[in-house]
Amino acid sequence: LCRPHSGEQNPAMVFHKVVKSKAYFKRYQVQFRRRREGMTDYRARRRLVQQDKNKYNTPKYRLVVRMTNRDVICQIVYSRIVGDFVLCSAYSHELPRFGLPCGLTNYAACYATGLLLARRVLKNLHLDDKYPGVANVTGEISEVEAVEDGPRPFKAFLDIGLFRTTTGARIFAAMKGAADGGLNVPHNEKRLVGYKPKKGDQEAKFNPAILREHIFGVHVAKYMKKRAADKAESDKIHFAKYAAAKIDADKLEKLIKSVHEKIRANPDAKDTRPRKEKEAERKAKFGAMKAKFPRKAALTLLERKNRFRQKLAAILAKAAAQSE
């Protein structure tokens, strides 16, 4: 190819104005609502939802983990044409029932919520005895092995939505808790706390002891001790709820271990029956409760007419007495 002369313009460098004509707008397809709102990654969802045709109508379960400022939400979800259905769910605001009154969004709480979900769904499916999970937590990566002459382990794929997949993120603590609880969640150690990727000549390395410390809140206890040694002025504000619950740094690991034991002993939800059933049981047991602001029963038409006649007779009698 010949070079263009200095006076000539390179045709590849010519600026072309993008003209959005009527034909463009007639063919423009609006994105899905949840994509427009920035709430769903449909590229990831498509891969998580699609099921092989040779598996017919078998549900493809997802371990959905979402986090808010005050709560951790873990759910087992499967998809149908009409929408998503929740098979089982667990929340970190349930942890106070098991003995953890505060710190409901840290790494240890995320692990405990994932553990609670795993034990609850396995109990509902009558698989909790066959797949007990990891009772002695060491931080090691372990896979759930299928039992002989029995059902295979419950399999679910992690769904983190739009959450960033950074190494050490709390969302993977919930996944680890579910895996240790007995669910078959395909994963490896690359996003867990304690993993260091390959850097130069240094090989990638995973330290399960660091992960174990985070699971039992040892890193929180160390920070509490550090602030106590420094005598920080904001210490009372920073760990105010721990102080109110009388939880110090030395008791934290033991407390979280007891939470895990209580979850394994009875992972059931508080009481999922309808309100009418619970009210009927309470009335049968304790009797009817007196209303704080009792409401009178509505009068019938005949009662209202009689009431009117009595009032009218009283007014006429009073007027007659005054005239005399």
Write a structural description:
With 324 residues, this protein is of the alpha+beta class. The chain has helices at 22-27, 33-36, 42-49, 107-124, 171-180, 208-215, 218-230, 235-238, 240-244, 249-265, 275-286, 301-323, and strands spanning 62-67, 72-80, 83-91, 157-159, 195-196, 205-206. The strands form two sheets. Strands 3-2-1-4 form a four-stranded mixed sheet. Strands 5-6 form a two-stranded antiparallel sheet.
Précis, in short:
The chain is α+β, with helices and mostly antiparallel strands.
The number of helical segments is 12
Strand order of the largest sheet: 3-2-1-4
As a whole number of angstroms, the C-alpha radius of gyration is: 32 Å
Unreliable stretches (pLDDT < 50, length at least 5) are none
In which range does the helix fraction lie? 25-40%
Element-by-element helix/strand order? HHHEEEHEHEEHHHHHHH
| Overall morphology | extended
How many strands?
6
Topology:
Elements: H1 22-27, H2 33-36, H3 42-49, E1 62-67, E2 72-80, E3 83-91, H4 107-124, E4 157-159, H5 171-180, E5 195-196, E6 205-206, H6 208-215, H7 218-230, H8 235-238, H9 240-244, H10 249-265, H11 275-286, H12 301-323
Parallel strand pairs: 1-4
Antiparallel strand pairs: 1-2, 2-3, 5-6
Helix pairs in contact: 4-5, 4-10, 7-10
Features:
extended, alpha+beta, 324 residues, 4-stranded mixed sheet, 40% helix, 10% strand, 12 helices, two-stranded antiparallel sheet
